[in-house]
Write a structure and sequence with these properties.
- The complex is a heterodimer of chains A (330) and B (330).
- Chain A has 330 residues and is an alpha/beta fold.
- Chain A has 11 helices and 12 strands.
- In chain A, the strands form 2 sheets. In chain A, strands 6-7-8-3-9-10-12-11 form an 8-stranded mixed sheet, with helices on both faces. A 4-stranded antiparallel sheet of chain A has the order 2-1-4-5.
- Chain B has 330 residues and is of the alpha/beta class.
- Chain B is 32% helix and 25% strand.
- Chain B has 11 helices and 14 strands.
- The longest helix of chain B has 18 residues.
- The chains are: A alpha/beta (330), B alpha/beta (330).
- At the A-B interface, helix 6, helix 7, helix 9 and helix 10 of A face helix 8, helix 9, helix 10 and helix 11 of B.
Amino acid sequence: MSANNDILLHVENLVMHFPIYRGVIRRKVGAVHAVDGISFDVQRGETLGLVGESGCGKTTTGRTILQLFKPTSGHVYFNGTDLVGLKREEMRHFRREMQMIFQDPYASLNPRMTVGDIIGEPLVVHNVATRKEIQERVEQLLDLVKLSSSFTDRYPHEFSGGQRQRIGVARALALQPSFIICDEPISALDVSIQAQVINLLEELQEQFNLTYLFIAHDLSVVRHISDRVAVMYLGLIVELTSRNELYSHPLHPYTRALLSAVPIPDPVADAKRQRVILEGDVPSPVNPPSGCHFRTRCPIAEAICAEKTPDFRELKPGHFVACHFADRFG
Amino acid sequence: MTDLLLDVQGLETQFKTEEGIVHAVNGVSFGLKKGETLGLVGESGCGKTVTMLSVLRLIASPPGKITAGKAVFLGKDLLQMTPKEIRHVRGGQIAMVFQDPLTSLNPVLKIGLQMEEQLTLHLGMTRKQARLHSIELLEKVGIPNAKDRLPDYPHQFSGGMRQRVMIAMALSCDPKILIADEPTTALDVTIQAQIVELVKRLRNELGMTIIWITHDLGIIAGLAQRVIVMYAGYIIEEAPVKELYAHPEHPYTIGLLGSLPRVDEKERHRLYSIEGLPPVLYDIPQACPFAPRCKWALERCWKENPKLQPVSTDHRTACWVDTKTRESRS
């Protein structure tokens, strides 16, 4: 593990397989290879974007980092301590440092709790404040996320999607964490509301020097908010580099296809682009293809891609890619 | 104007709810030329879907009611047709593709049967003809091994493939107009790109007239020739696609375009955000419905609701403010 002080989170060969049981005696017949061995760092104060299509394992990655799933193998170092294998009590201490904002602001807030109780709950659970302090803190947090402090006694159903997401953000901030995993925090929101929440997240990051792992499927949003971006495909990170490098010099054929598939809200710029349309669908993670996971849809795949899994190598300084032929685009 | 395939005039649709009457569509007028692709853009609840459902008379009544307007299609008003006549139009001459193919397909019937049913019913084909034609249609929309997929159930298809099946079914009776309601919203970007490519190809091959309903200004930029922007049940701007993206006139359109992160964004900057929420209209507003969120609102905007007016030959906007001078239009 790294001695580098600037690295807040270091993930090493993280594997998360979910077993599939069948039959009367519940015999294990296979596994969903949700995360298949990934390694990356998140530096203090940065936003690392984790982007990929549905089923690529990006949400599982986030949850496994928080030890909400027990990883099959691998290590997650947070501030130098390996979280994997920690006891519940030991983990509790770290939970205060790491919080999560969820995708669906309708499902992630308990409809029977008031806004005040929802935002104050982390403080109660961790037993860090008196009732009076909690009340003050809740009002402070509501103010931070630009909601009126008079909302404390209301219930989630009285709020719109954007407002609910702000409540979710306030709850995540309650314990003053240093690291927040944002799991598709805006994809359930309307266009004009998305910008409000993105701006809020950026302002809070500056104010509290927060570190984000920003999980999303929307490459435009990820480009906007991230300092560095990791692209996932079928349980593996296929490319990782700084935002501008990724978008101007993508090296992995999947990244190239993904970028060219994103619509640009400008008919003139859109017409000028070259399109790479991928054939077919993402294969099942129960039985990922041998060798390179992307080879079944890859426009440049050759025999070696089926035989040998490409290394995740640093082709240019700070630019990692897992493809046998990545040099072609370099 | 005789070259209009569909001519909608002063359409109004309301819904009775416990809280009062919701004015979902408030005097919407537009024409659709043969062979063009019209984009209907707006956020959830702006009335874009209800407008098209009203035209096809697919509004459940009660609670919904079309209270005024005409929708002339091939010389006949759809809103005055007998149930039998409108059924004939719906299946055959105007077809609709919905957002979620899984809820639009019958889960317990084989795909082949669902396709053949339509063909035997609307076109009076025999079972055998229908079967052959179904295979042809599935091949046309790019489903591999179409013949072998006929006995499959909807759940055996992936999301993208299901949407292809929906498009094949919509095309089966050679419709004059295809209405696509957010057909790619539930899909991943690479699959979305496949579907858009497919629709473009079919449009060229068959010379189809399309109305594409979406909240995504990105996708519409590369697809439509003309765009209508809706807000709170009103058309607030209408222009040819290039004109709209290059010179948006309405503050809402300007705000919406400014709030979108772009995948080709170079410098990091704060997104423009439209504060507040879209209104739910329980009363016909006396003021401009956008005034509470508009940063340029003038005194007049709070007193009179602006009508859609031309700013140039084919560019219309409903706004009192001249966005260049920030002063009132005469």
